[in-house]
Design brief:
This protein is an alpha/beta fold. The chain has eleven helices and 21 strands. The protein folds into three domains: 70 residues, Beta Barrel (Thrombin, subunit H), CATH 2.40.10; 258 residues, 3-Layer(aba) Sandwich (Rossmann fold), CATH 3.40.50; 85 residues, no CATH class. It is elongated and about 80 Å long.
Length: 450
């Protein structure tokens, strides 16, 4: 027999408060109103006071409506039919096709016990030298892209999804502009991967509550595919929009705010999602790559600050490039020693020389006299930025390593690179004639309208 509660005490924003008993946290409920049924989720319990988050918004809900609790968490259908589909933040079709049917799976289940996880040891190749060579992405890693508004972080995320060696790609868009959503879809379609991709899209025009469901939908579905032996890549953009939705709900619930108005459990809410990244022993894996926009380029903002404590590194996207300083993959040592014998040596040498190049640029800008060594470094810095750092560069790992060697050979003598002689003798390009000492010519800044 169904049990209804009709003591709705308060409606504020998308949160409805009702008097009820025998209710659990995260439990799903149905609000029976004159405008049709609305699904909601328990987000707060205070004695008999139960706060519900209404997924489609509280418009049309009145104090006379009845609430029925389903005594189970939010669920989503899972089947192979999800592949190639575009759905919204509640799992409803956004692509004009029929509803997805399949086995119902719970959202928000606990992360896998670390004891049951396989140690990450397989590289995810992306075709982007600044990732593959210098900060290798590893299966089951959780890593964010720190960026600011205006940087091509969504384009970078789409390209990684297009080129990464993964079986299933799951995109979770939160607060996306409509044209960003269309770019993701068009990129996957043109690249021929839409048939093995699933898109859960929440746009800025959709209800705020649905934004909070997107990561849970992506991760629950991805986990099921990983259990079937698939290598799953989950792309989330952007987790700052997700955190802002959390803040908006907490303000409506009159919670005591923490840093910059965000809820006090922001760390827990983020960790609950990121920690779902896993490599199952004897099965597949799920890798999580998330965009985190930093308001005012402030890395101490609560969202990137908390994210940095949870994840295993970060990529910094600045001026249209992945910055080598500040970017870090804490798991790269698990894989880059197994790729090619010169990988670690070339990684260390190129970054050290690029750091010296920046010092030489500062000396030049301050009017100091340039030595022959400074000129070599300036030339190297220009070539490294053009041939390796530029995001338009799209080459496999071994080709990227060979290109690094060719840049070194064009600018330096072998002994000047700081690389062990045995490695240099094996990999130094046969056509390398040592360094040229002509001053490096920096590109002139573009003039608007030219």
């Amino acid at each position: 027999m169904r049990k209804y509660f009709d003591s709705i005490r308060r409606i504020a924003g998308n949160v409805v408060t009702v008097n009820a008993s025998d209710v659990g946290y995260d439990e799903l409920a149905v609000i029976d109103s004159a405008h049709g049924d609305s699904f909601a989720q328990v987000i707060r319990l205070e004695g008999q006071q139960v706060s519900l988050q209404v997924f489609a918004g509280s418009q049309g809900v009145s104090n006379n409506d009845r609430v029925r609790f389903l005594h189970r968490p939010m669920q989503a259908p899972f089947s192979e039919d999800l592949l190639g589909r575009v759905l919204d933040g509640s799992g409803r079709p956004r692509d004009g096709r029929g509803e997805v049917t399949g086995e119902m799976i719970d959202l928000g289940s606990p992360p896998v016990n670390p004891v049951k996880r396989h140690m990450p040891d397989k590289m995810v190749h992306t075709g982007i030298p600044m990732i593959d060579v210098f900060n290798s992405l590893v299966e089951s890693q959780k890593i964010p892209i720190f960026s600011v508004a205006g940087e091509p972080y969504n384009e970078l995320l789409a390209r990684i999804g297009l080129q990464a060696n993964a079986d299933i790609i799951i995109l979770g868009g939160m607060g996306l502009r409509h044209d960003d959503y269309l770019k993701f879809r068009q990129t996957f379609e043109d690249g021929g991967v839409l048939g093995r991709a699933i898109l859960f899209i929440h746009t800025a025009a959709d209800p705020v509550v649905e934004c909070l469901l997107v990561p849970d939908l992506c991760l629950a579905v991805g986990e099921q595919f990983a259990l079937q032996g698939k290598r799953v890549l989950v792309l989330l953009s952007d987790m700052t929009a997700f955190s802002d939705s959390l803040k908006e709900i907490s303000i409506v619930m009159e919670q005591i705010p923490s840093n910059r108005g965000y809820p006090g459990d922001l760390y827990t809410q983020l960790a609950k999602r990121y920690e779902k990244a896993v490599d199952f022993e004897g099965a597949g894996s799920m890798t999580v790559l998330a965009c985190v926009t930093m308001p005012g380029d402030d890395v101490t903002h609560p969202v990137p600050d908390n994210t940095g404590y949870i994840t295993e590194g970060q990529f910094y996207l600045r001026n249209g490039r992945i910055e080598p300083f500040g970017s870090l993959s804490r798991l790269k040592q698990q894989v880059n020693g197994k790729t090619r014998g010169d990988h670690r040596a070339i990684m260390d040498a190129c970054i050290q020389l690029y750091a010296l190049c920046r010092e030489s640029r500062e000396k030049r800008d301050m009017g100091f006299e340039m030595s022959a060594w400074d000129r070599k470094l300036l030339k190297y810095g220009n070539l490294f930025e053009q041939r390796i750092m530029d995001l338009s560069v799209n080459i496999p790992l071994f080709d990227a390593l060979d290109r690094c060697w060719s840049i070194l050979a064009e600018c330096f003598e072998p002994a000047e690179t700081g690389i062990r002689r045995s490695i240099v003798e094996e990999h130094w390009p046969a056509s390398g004639n040592g360094a040229e000492t002509e001053p490096a010519q920096e590109e002139e800044p573009a003039v608007a309208g030219s």
